[in-house]
# Entry
Amino acid sequence: MQDRENSIPAADAAIDPFVEHRRLLFGTAYQMLGSVADAEDILQDAWLKWHAVDQDSVEHPKSYLVRTVTNLALNRLTSARATRETYVGPWLPEPLLTAPNAAEETELADTVSTAMLVVLETLNPTERAVFVLREVFGYSFAEIGGFLDRPEATVRQISHRAKSHVQSRRPRFDSDDAARQEITQKFMAACHGGDLNALMELLAPEVTLWNDGGGIVTAARRPLHGPDHVARWMLGVMAKPVSAGIRLESAVVNGELSIIGVIGDYRLGALTYDIVDGRIENLRFQVNPQKLGGIQAAGDTTA
# Structure
């Protein structure tokens, strides 16, 4: 990921509030938009705004920057929602490589997961902003009201509505890291070996797969349901001539152990999933080449 602050003189970078809070700002924008590229653009715009004001007159730089990023993201999200209505096939958020302890390191908790970002897409822009600021970053209702120019009572109502909405749609999943590691290894082995029965045994009866190719690369344009359908589709992809040389590797994506598809040094897709009662219940396969920037740089933990 490109660091926008590289244009800041080295002597100033160490004390520049924008640099100091960059991870928080990126996390806010990314959770608001579900897009690495858009989050980077928001940070660029926020950096320009920050360096265009009289910084000595800003009493609380961190709050000023969060407010700036939030409102820029709100504007971007409002226009993005219209674009997504004409998106080809299922829309999935952009995956992001994270460190194994990314949730603790970046204060993003489980809301950085792909599953949660998908749920956040069902909120309206204001609800999403309030939820992210309150539930992820712990801002008070009064602070959020200041960011959004809304009365505290209104923010409290929006927060309650958004939280209830998210809780009712938040996917259930197992949190056993060892079990997830074992299932991930078995899944990759079954795919590499073309073992249909082994693959089906790993999938829950109600498993669903969403595939985001954005109309750019070949991908299923509708969700696939059921172990047989999902397993045969996965093995069919692996068996295609265009897939020759693909290897599956485990990686921590959006704070969870996941799978990425690799040819040579290029990462051509990210597969994230929920594990419930020891089986894979939901799979989200991101292969849109325009949405893979966040998984290309090994060890990138900018979120």
User: Anything to note?
Assistant: The CA atoms of residues 178 and 185 lie 11 Å apart. The domain at 4-169 is CATH 1.20.140.160 (Butyryl-CoA Dehydrogenase, subunit A; domain 3).
